[in-house]
Automatic annotation (TrEMBL):
A Pfam family annotated for this UniProt entry: GramPos_pilinD1
Signal in keyword set: yes
Source species of the chain: Gordonibacter urolithinfaciens
Stretches assigned to the Gram-positive pilin subunit D1 N-terminal domain: 44-195
Protein name from the UniProt record: SpaH/EbpB family LPXTG-anchored major pilin
Signal peptide stretch: 1-34
GO biological process: carbohydrate metabolic process
């Protein structure tokens, strides 16, 4: 005989349910979620590493908490240094909704809502911690215990960007892989990104620590465009504009990089979605051989393509286009041997893009605004040509060549680029009396027909031994002196100091005893070995005139006296 199960009457069941709910309310709301340590030990050694970037638009890629997120950093993003982040530990019970009268936190607050959020959820026993990102854009919060944390960007470091939104970070962080398996991260990496508010920007993609002739530089020109209603009415009334990329030149006025014809054009939505456009639809003109410029022109075809995207996303404004990106590849060429320098006199490659944008109504929204670009270093040095008083010689140019040894310098065997027949040569600029040897970082230098690799080896050693200075000796000869000055007779030793301070730093070059100033004595100055000629029409000619007049006067006087003496004798 089967035992019968007791049954609750409907009235009793209702009463019991009410009792359970009442008890639950007395203890607090049912937790919305809870921490899971994933089998990890909470020993106070967890960490949160912040990787800070500036991007053209918001990223549409969610973070995973791992270093693999670096692959999801938008193209053209650049690290931001000097950005302050404050980390607050939260009350886990309140965040999970386990405390009576406090609802579970459903999401991180907005920037304006941080104060109210912390008043409700901040752990009373914790102290906020502030960290500032370094040159590589990272900041590390270490020695953390498990729990919930609120990460807030409290200072953008003066950059013209929209502050990143606050975020709640869980330690450990549950990372679900494909197939349903879950791993827990004790050390979590986060990638908060600031959207740039700059009208025009030019950034280097995968910025190198050093460049040399033959290398490819990839960079991105980004600029804002007007709102959707002002992009395209018809081919005669549509978005217009020009993007002029002014290439860097050496002292001889030759471009040091060459634009490749494989550029791409992207229409960037407000939410970070990239829409690839047809490159042939944008006008392109490369006149760098004559004026050092490459120019893109916004055509009706490009304006219409953008308008099609905007119209298709009328109901979702975040998908409408806010910026245009032009991604360019350029080859560093042999002319980089005499490129520009930064404020410290270090050789660099740096150029700007100037953008003009006019909307469909004919209003200029960006008026020939120039971008700034990250400077990419080259191996080399700058020198100044001065007279005996230390003044820069600006009346004429001087030229210099480099040798690998004193003997080679005396013999006239100088460094060459293997792709050229002429010696590497630097010429002083009439504007400031300075000359630059750069581009010495390439590995195809030759000396006397033999490969010269000492500089390339020093760079390799500097990258392998961070912070350790590598020395390379070169000998410099003056092969032409400024007009009116004596040429330097002896080769001048130049010791390059090559170093890479940290893994994220660039390779830099300094000169022992630098900055270099080379003195030319004027023809006829002491030690010159000959006498100075008088200046034509100046006091020198006047001196000869006076001396001549005195001599003539003396001769006349002598002649008159002689005649009188002769006459007296005859009497």
């Amino acid at each position: 005989m089967e035992c019968s199960k007791p049954r609750l009457s409907g009235r009793m069941a209702t009463a019991l349910t009410a009792l359970v709910l009442a008890a639950t309310m007395a203890l607090g709301a049912v937790p919305a979620f809870a921490l899971n340590d994933g089998g990890l030990t909470d020993d106070g050694t967890a960490s949160i590493t912040v990787h800070k970037y500036k991007t053209p638009a918001a990223s549409s890629e969610p973070g995973t908490g791992s270093t693999a997120d670096a692959g999801n950093v938008p193209t053209g993003a650049e690290p931001m240094s000097g950005v302050d982040f404050t980390l607050y530990k939260l009350d886990s019970a309140k965040v999970e909704g386990s405390v009576a009268g406090t609802a579970a936190a459903s999401a991180a607050p907005s920037a304006d809502g941080v104060a109210a959020f912390l008043a409700l959820y901040k752990s009373a026993s914790s102290t906020p911690v502030v960290k500032t990102t370094g040159a590589d854009g990272t900041a590390v919060f270490g020695s953390l215990s498990f729990g919930y944390y609120l990460l807030v960007e409290t200072n953008a470091g003066g950059a013209n960007v929209e502050t990143s939104v606050p975020s709640i970070i869980t330690l450990p962080y549950a990372q679900q892989a494909s197939g349903g398996s879950t791993t827990y991260l004790k050390d979590v990496h986060v990638y908060p990104k600031n959207v740039s508010k700059e009208e025009v920007e030019k950034t280097v993609i995968d910025e190198p620590d050093l460049v040399k002739p033959g290398d490819t530089l990839s960079y991105q020109i980004a600029f804002m465009i007007p709102e959707a209603s002002k992009i395209f009415t018809d081919p005669a009334n549509c978005l217009k504009g020009t993007i002029v990329d002014t290439l860097p030149k050496n002292a001889a006025g030759q471009p040091t990089i060459t634009i490749k014809n494989d550029y791409s054009v992207v229409a960037l939505a407000q939410d970070g979605t990239e829409n690839v456009l047809t490159p042939g639809d944008i006008g392109f003109s490369d006149t760098s051989a004559t004026n050092g410029q490459a120019t893109w022109t916004i055509t009706p075809a490009i304006a219409q393509a953008i308008n099609v995207i905007n119209v298709a996303n009328t109901a979702t404004p975040a998908k409408q286009i806010g910026k245009i990106l032009i991604r360019v590849n350029a080859t560093v060429n042999d002319n980089a041997f005499n490129a520009g320098v930064d404020a410290n006199g270090l050789p660099i490659i740096q150029n700007t893009a100037t953008v003009t944008v006019i909307d469909a109504l004919g209003t200029t929204t960006i008026d020939a605004k120039a971008s700034t670009t990250v400077a990419i270093p080259l191996i080399g040095f700058q020198l100044l040509k001065v007279d005996a008083e230390g003044n820069a010689i600006l009346s004429d140019t001087a030229t210099f060549k480099l040798a690998t040894s004193y003997d080679n310098a005396v013999a006239g065997t100088f460094l060459k680029n293997a792709t050229a027949t002429a010696d590497l040569q630097a010429t002083t600029n009439l504007a400031d009396g300075k000359a630059v040897f750069s581009g010495l970082s390439f590995d195809n230098l030759t000396s006397g027909g033999t490969a010269y690799t000492a500089i390339e080896q020093a760079v390799t050693a500097a990258r392998a031994n961070l912070g350790t200075v590598q020395n390379v000796e070169l000998w410099m000869c003056e092969t032409k002196a400024p007009n009116g000055y004596r040429i330097l007779q002896a080769p001048q030793k130049v010791t390059l100091q090559i170093v890479k301070a940290t893994a994220d730093a660039k390779v830099t070059t300094t000169v022992v005893g630098g900055p270099l100033s080379l003195v030319n004595a004027r023809d006829g100055q002491e030690g010159g070995g000959n006498f100075a000629l008088p200046n034509t029409g100046g006091t020198g000619a006047l001196i000869f005139g006076i001396v001549g007049a005195v001599l003539i006067g003396a001769a006349v006087t002598y002649f008159v006296r002689s005649r009188r003496r002769d006459q007296h004798d005859q009497s």
